[in-house]
Amino acid sequence: MARRNFRAETAAPGAPLVLDGQRSATRARRWCERGPRDLCYLVGSTYVRLRCKRRDCPRCWSVRSRELARCLVLDARESAPGHCLTLTTVTPWEDLHPATYRDGSLQVFRRLRRRFGPVEYFGAIEFTTGRARRSGGRRRLHGHYLVKGLGDADVLLVEQLVRETWARVTGAWVVEAAALVSPGAALGYLGLHHRKPSQAPPALWRGMTERSSRGYWHRPIAELRAIARAELAVEAHAHRTGLPVELAALELAAAPKPRLMRVRRGRSELLEPLGELAPPLTDGDRELGVVTRHLPWRMGRGGSVPE
Q1: Which one, of 173, 171, 153, lies nearest residue 163 by Cα?
Q2: Per DSSP, what are the bridge partners of residue 265?
Q3: 133-160: b or e for each residue (b if 16 or more CB lie within 10 Å)?
């Protein structure tokens, strides 16, 4: 996936490329256990649980990671990154001021642009587990970046420039730069392997987990996310039903729209429907003077939920 001073003759025969604890995303439950218990989507005759969309929820984090990986693949089809970069920190996240990391990454890419010209990046923030022998039980953040615009630059020179700048601003000296041999595999590695639920941000952390430069995406990220959600939904439906992807897409397009229902859960997890919730008025409804009865909405843990 990435090549940096790699020698095939030094590898043990049959040795795995990744350690057991680093193989892939941690398997999560098939549903979110933190979503509202009194609300469900009614899709045809099936009730579907709502997700909480919290970053410390293994299920929601894995869903968002797959969506991000698909966005990276969609973007790479038009403009693939040529290098990857890892920036670490030595200060536990509770004691690390957010401005220190932001200023360090700003100085790093500013120096790369002065040397190599226009450089664009996408970065994903990851946290250590805090279970290492020398960690003292404290978690630390680090960033993995996909970089465009370096061309045929010497990887060792790039790493030297990044290390000098990063150490001067943050005090951390462990950085790594590598040229991407297989961009497709690298995108999956960043989008899934480096976003394991066990290394998701702590619940109390309020920073950004994804950061990108203004010119990294070839089209607005909101459009890429919409395309990614649609493709993943079609693939999931095809996997459940055994249909070809083309037929699954047609079946999903003809399916009725989900309806938000209020339900009551019994001790045996049986659902008792209590009625459909009318959605809030849209801007188009207000312009047309449409008046419908709808419940007041409040902000909950996972976004807007009806009171």
Answers
A1: 173
A2: 271
A3: eeeeeebbbbbbbbbbbbeebebeebbe
Q: What single letter denotes the amino acid at residue 44? A: G
Residue 173 in tokens:
């000296």
Find out whether 97 and 170 touch, Cβ atoms under 8 Å: no
DSSP state of 276: E
The identity of residue 223, as a single letter, is E
* Cα separations in angstroms, 8 against 13, 84, 153: 10, 21, 23
Cα dihedral 127/131/132/134 (nearest 10): 100
Q: For residues 303 and 54, what is the distance between their CA atoms, to the nearest angstrom?
A: 9
Q: Is residue 261 within 8 Å of 41, Cβ to Cβ?
A: yes
Q: Would the pTM count as exceeding 0.85?
A: no
pLDDT tens column, 71-80 = 998 998 888 8
Task: Transcribe 83-105 into DSSP letters.
Answer: EEEEE--SS-TTTS-HHHHHHHH
The type of residue at 63 is: V
CA–CA gap between residue 11 and residue 279 (Å, rounded) = 59
CA 138 – CA 132 distance, rounded (Å) = 9
d(CA 307, CA 181): 51
CB 248 within 8 A of CB 239: no
Residue with tokens 């999903």: 252
Whole-number Å distance between alpha carbons of 28 and 63: 10
pLDDT digits (tens, 9 = 90+) for 129-184: 888 777 888 888 889 999 999 988 999 999 999 999 999 999 898 999 988 877 67
The domain segmentation of the chain, as residue ranges, is 54-218
